[in-house]
Amino acid sequence: MHIHPFLTDPCAVLVSHTPVTEPVQPADYRTAAQRVLAALQVTLAGEKVVLKPNVTAGEHHANPDSGIGTHPAFVGGLIEYLADRGAWPGGIYIVEDPRDTDDNHPRHWRGTGYDELAGTTGAKLRCPTTYTCVKRSVPQPQVFPHLNVSRLAVAPDSILINVPKLKTHNLAITTLCLKNLMGLVNVFNRHYCGQAWRELAAAGMLPESEGRPREAWMDEGIHAAWQRGLARRLVDTAQVIRPHLNIVEGVVGREGTGFQRGRNFPLGLALAGVNMVAVDTVASYLMGFDPARLIYLQYAAAAGLGSNDLAELRVYVVEDGAIVPCRDIEALRARPPLRVIRNIAGEPDIS
Fold it and tell me: For residues 201-236, b (16+ Cβ closer than 10 Å) or e, as one string?
């Protein structure tokens, strides 16, 4: 893959803003996606392409316009661009497991918009199942000595493009590039939030819940400890799976829990970079958060995976199709800032 030389710098992050209509239309997503790739001058030389969007299915999640997942029209824009610029014919894959099952049945994609996208573009839908994953050792494990991950995502002849959604999350606070990799881990290993919760329980760090939902009594200390458990697992995954490029779909940003409770905001943003920590840092800042205070970014930076210090990063924007240094990052921040529902006792809800 050829890409603009500025992205050889792991501290470089591109922010692209595309004016959008209200309500946002599929054409807005396609334009935003292709604008980023054109600015990055992406071309391929016959490689396979593996795209990893954030896709969830089910009664409340499947609607492509819900704001909960990466919009299929954005991924469609990427596919159209890459297919015209050297991707291996028939070699574009979308890898995700919308329903968390250990098979690759088309029904899992029903209602997400990705089944239709595959039909119109020829992209292949794949889930990371027992039979399509490979074991990889974690170089400096914090939780897992090894992980079973999608064979396609780590294949030497594939280009992995990580395409998360710009949104908040009840545990991670922001869920972007690093957390999106969870969907490339085998279904039996990937439930990091639940694993971290059970880890707290096993260590005796949780008070007696007496059958109440955890948000009825969870406090800041428990929430922070839970975040640390998630962060260590994300660090392990990021040591094994290294995307060649990360592109955050923020055409519509979402605040709330990360799932059905929340609201959408048309932002017209897309962010790109080769380093996940750098991209997540800039994206989190644009959402309204201090990346230095986000626990998963603290752990990732401490593990040497990238910088979460905005002062160390170099932010660029697209102007007239060219990449230029960003002169006013504050002008790109969401107004009002995106908020998160953390499920902490006494914390106000978003209505």
Answer: eeeeebeeeeeeeeeeebeeebbebbbbbbbbbbbb
